[in-house]
Structure formats: structure tokens, C-alpha cells
Amino acid sequence: MPTELSQSFYFEAAHTLRRYVEGEVESSKRVHGHTYHAEVTLRGEPDRETGMVMDLGVVRRELASLRERLDHRFLDEVEGIGPATLENLCAFIARELRPSLPLLVRVAVFRPASGDRATLQLD
Questions:
Q1: N or C, which terminus of the chain has less Cβ within 10 Å?
Q2: Which residues contact 60 (CB under 8 A, 6 or more apart)?
Q3: Could you report the per-residue pLDDT of 83-121, keeping only the tens digit for each?
Q4: Does the predicted TM-score (pTM) go above 0.85?
Q5: Which H/E stretch holds residue 97?
């Protein structure tokens, strides 16, 4: 029976954001930072011998490597993100992790302090 396995991580980062709506918020254009939380979800059949969808040690190692590329960075300069929106961060994380975590089916990025969340469903 398919089982989902999720792991979360967080990173602190700065960015700018150009809004395209009337009454644009000036503060978004200035460099500012957030504490971002991300959750990745894998889905698969647990292995009969180990009982695991995937070894969490492997998942944590991949997340730590990705976190190193995002934590305390200026996201505008991280190649492959584009404008540092929650949506683009989800897509970036998925692209970066999918080769090493092929069972990846969902990525969520959220900022609890402001109540914002984006989720990318891959399956």
C-alpha cells in the first residue's frame, strides 16, 4: 500500500520582490528577509525488508545539502530560482531534489510568521 513520508527543514534568506499590482508595496522592493519552512513528501511502497519508503538518513542528507545553498543567502542571486516567490521556491526545490529523491511527490514552502504557503503537487 503506498505510503507518504515527509521531512521538513527551514532556512533564513533575503530577497527582493517586484509586485505587479496597483498600490505596490514599496517595502517588498527593498532587500528583506524571512524564515522559510519547507516540507518535502515522498510516496511509495515500503520495502518489505526495511519497512521504509526511503531511508530518512538519505532524505535528510539531500535536504541538508540543498539547505546549505539557500540558508543565509540572497535568493535573487541563487541561480535557477527566478523571482523569489513561494511558488518559484517550490519549483526550485523540486527540480533540485527530484534526481536524488525520485519518489518526491509534493513540495510546500511556507512562512508561518505571515501565514503564507505554496504547495507544488508533482504526481
A1: N
A2: 7
A3: 999 999 999 999 999 999 999 999 999 999 999 999 999
A4: yes
A5: helix 86-97
Quick count: other Cβ atoms within 10 Å of Cβ 58?
A: 12
C-alpha distances (whole Å) from 66 to each of 29, 60, 73 are 26, 10, 12
Best CA proximity match to 43, nearest among 119, 102, 98: 102
- Phi/psi at 83 (5° precision): -55, 130
Task: Find out whether 2 and 44 touch, Cβ atoms under 8 Å.
Answer: yes
Cross-strand partners of 111: 116
Give me the CATH code for the 3-121 domain, please: 3.30.479.10
Q: Report the residue count for the chain.
A: 123
Domain ranges of the chain: 3-121
